[in-house]
Amino acid sequence: MGPSETNDHVLSALTNSFTDIDPEETGEWIESFDELVETHGTERAQFIVRSLMQRAGQKSITVPMVTTTDYVNTIPVDQEPEYPGDEQVERRYRAILRWNAAVMVQRAQKATISVGGHISSYAGMATLYEVGYNHFFRGRSHPGGGDQLFFQGHSSPGNYARAFLEGRLSEEQLDGFRQEKTKEGTHLPSYPHPRNLPDFWQFPTVSMGLGPLNAIHQASFNKYLHNRGIKDTSDQNVWAFLGDGEMDEPESRGALQLAANEKLDNLTFVVNCNLQRLDGPVRGNGKIVQELEAFFRGAGWNVIKVLWGREWDSLLEKDTSGELVRVMNETLDGDFQTYKAESGGFIREHFFGQTPETKELVADMTDEEIWAMKRGAHDYQKVYAAYKAAVDHKGQPTVILAQSVKGYGLGASFEARNATHQMKKLSMDDLKRFRDHLRIPISDEQLENDLYNPPYYHPGKDSEEYKYLMERRAELGGFIPGRKNIQPEIPLPSEKAYKGALKGTGKQMAATTMAFVRLLKDLMREKDFGHRIVPIIPDEARTFGMDSYFPTAKIYNPNGQNYLAVDRELMLAYKESPQGKIIHVGINEAGGVAAMTAVGSSYDTHGEPMIPVYIFYSMFGFQRTGDSFWAAADQLVRGFIIGGTAGRTTLTGEGLQHMDGHSPILAGTNPAVIHYDPAYGYEIAHIVKRGIEHMYGTGDEDHNVMYYLTVYNEPIQHPVQPENLDVDGVIGGIYRLSEAKNDGPRAQLLASGVAVPWALEAQQMLAEEWGVSADVWSVTSWTNLRRDGLDAERVLLKDPAATPRKPFIEAQLEGATGPIVAVSDYQTDLMDGVRQFVPNEFATLGADGFGFSDTRAGARRFYKIDSASIVVRTLQMLAKRGEVAADAPAQAFAKYDLNNINAGTSGNAGGDA
């Protein structure tokens, strides 16, 4: 396959498929253009080329769609700004940082510890960080408000090494790397984990793909705050440091169009293109830089390539034949990786030796000089030029594709090796070579004393390096990363905001989704509080009855609404505005959680507590985006998660992948998520009130939680709040909703959410038809009850002498005799979680198995969770105890025709919200 077939998508090969019928004339045009560049510079030449392309289009001459440029630096040498710092001083302390980062990991490999760590990632991107630290990354004290940085997770040793040089971390803390409990108090987590190091990290990034996605929504949220007039964020930038292998993740690329559509020129991606994944090359048979350039350019981003260091400039200038550029274009990534794992002589033979012209270019160079030619990501001048161009660029987000070598400077056994990501230990020879390469003043004797205890190095606070580093950070606004972890006090809603939800619906029917939406509307009207609520909705606002928000709250769009809306005459017309409150992410649950993460951490990133209310189809929350919720927990996000259209039998007609019978179980595995399954509007009001106080109040408690409510789309009548309501029970997870009015054998019916009406119906059937006295308990949170019970057991395990505490569910059920039947619209695993904490006989009825589309009554009869099934199961347990006739269960089974799906009566039709 010839070059014209493989390479005609890049500039230098655009004419490969054409025949030059007049080479002399072509030469004159090219000579004229060269004179233009030499006389007037590259910027003028760019304008002329664009003008010619524009004219060609007007003349109906096909202009190629070029999404990929040659494999050279984007910024011409004559457009590179002068480097503003003292590069030699910066390089000296960069060497110290690289040494201490590697030593920290090496010391963690002692035989008694051996906790792992990554050496090669930071070694390959230290320059990318340091140019930013010294000249671009602004701390929180900067007058503009400071930047937000998403650091590449595997390079965390470099961040720790810098904090050590700055005096923020001690040697003892560096020695606590990856030993978070055995050295608690002086520990450092493996990666950026704000939850585990809350005064240091801001953004968790090591779950690959989530960093780029969250960075985009962080930049979008910054503009949102500005456009709404809540905070001036016009001088704040978001930087995301990513790996080229990480860009394979769907989340890494899935929101690029949002950044382009919203013109997020406050956002810069820096992709560390070391051409390697964790196990081998990213595109051994291709070119990942070129692929990413085309992808980002096609998505509407500004693309800057930083591929070659300054040593290549003179060679490219002498490349009058274009052969060097052609070889660069055609060399595969797998070969580029191999070159840096070999030697200068190998590069001379296999790279430059491909053509006579390129071989001649390096004829006067030694092998050592060839080997010393850097790639762009290791050159201060080239990186600075790219960063400055990125922050100066307006109207588009920018991606910088910086070519590097993984394990740079670590020696032949590390550099560019496939296994380098997994290599945690330096041999004595590696250690000495690394020290020599970095010129660290540590003796052989100090190293040979203990391979796994090489000394850290600090030049001292009187050194030129330390003073320079600290001056740069002071001028740029303080240390990064850093986290204040302080939530400013804000006014909370008045009691008036909750009154509507406490009144019930009278004779009207409403789903719990609608009850929540009405409450949220009242909260949004609260003076000094409502402006902080940020509804976040995928493309389902009308399903949830939230289209009523459109006319007043409006949908956030930084570009406004420039079209004539089809429903403009309607009262609930679709309205977009730069001042809109609603973040409408489209059909994009991953984007919804990312938006929630940005909003819910605003109390820290901006000092402005904002309250995200992310509402979505229940099935597509914790099942689809569980990893994102886990990252949100790590980032100490606070806010409300609303799983609408919840339950396995409640969303009729939608089918298997929509029927959610397990999200509360998945959510229960996230320690930061507090799940509630309310049945009525007044329960929702008390839960939301408690959630706001818990997350945004000033009480002495952990505020870093998220409240997850499952709400349904089945219309029911909501009663007025009962007198003497056990509010503590509502918040704790269980309260007695309806006490039996008759005498007879005793039983207890525990139900949550949409199942509460079935339990109430079963209570009546048991009393009137079987003489059984059953109390009904509304279980607002099975998860709270289980966690509380486990906590009571754990306290005793830690301190056997402690006074035993009754689990909350046991205390609530004290005196409630008889067997328990627990039921919900979820799998039995949810209810079984509390079984060990109650002394009563216990049975669960749940919607186990796959969901399907059918009527609510039919589906509930199929799963045996409807009112008749509750009655039969209760009678079975009582018959076993001898408290009802032995044949009562069989009589009930026949009476209700329990195996007949069409005989079910629990549930009604209708109700989108």
Task: Using brief descriptors, characterize the structure shown.
913 residues; five-stranded parallel beta sheet; 36 helices; 40% helix; 10% strand; pyruvate; Transketolase_N; PDH_E1
Task: Give a structural overview.
- The chain is of the alpha/beta class and 913 residues long.
- 40% of the residues lie in helices and 10% in strands.
- The longest helix is centred in the first third of the chain and has 36 residues, at 23-58.
Task: Briefly characterize the structure.
This protein is an alpha/beta fold. It contains 36 helices and 18 strands. It has a 6-stranded parallel beta sheet, with helices on both faces.
Characterize the main sheet: 6 strands, parallel
Per the principal axes of the C-alpha atoms, what is the gross shape? elongated
Give the percentage of residues in beta strands: 5-15%
Number of strands: 18
The mean pLDDT is: 93
- What share of the residues lie within helices? 25-40%
- The rounded Rg comes to 33 Å
Unreliable stretches: 1-5
Going by helix content, strand content and strand pairing, the class is alpha/beta
SSE map:
Elements: H1 3-6, H2 23-58, H3 87-107, H4 120-135, E1 148-150, H5 156-166, H6 171-174, H7 210-227, E2 238-243, H8 250-253, H9 256-261, E3 267-273, H10 288-298, E4 302-306, H11 313-318, H12 323-330, H13 333-339, H14 344-350, H15 356-361, H16 367-371, H17 380-392, E5 398-403, H18 428-438, H19 444-448, H20 464-475, H21 496-502, H22 512-524, E6 533-538, H23 550-553, E7 555-556, E8 576-577, E9 583-586, H24 589-600, H25 602-605, E10 611-617, H26 622-634, E11 639-644, H27 663-667, E12 673-676, H28 681-696, E13 706-710, H29 727-732, E14 734-738, E15 746-751, H30 756-770, E16 773-779, H31 782-798, H32 808-812, E17 820-823, H33 828-832, E18 842-845, H34 856-863, H35 867-880, H36 888-895
Parallel strand pairs: 1-2, 2-3, 3-5, 4-5, 6-9, 6-10, 7-8, 10-11, 11-13, 12-13, 15-16, 15-17, 17-18
Antiparallel strand pairs: 14-16
Function: Component of the pyruvate dehydrogenase (PDH) complex, that catalyzes the overall conversion of pyruvate to acetyl-CoA and CO(2).
Domain Transketolase-like C-terminal: 733-865
Keywords: Oxidoreductase, Pyruvate, Thiamine pyrophosphate
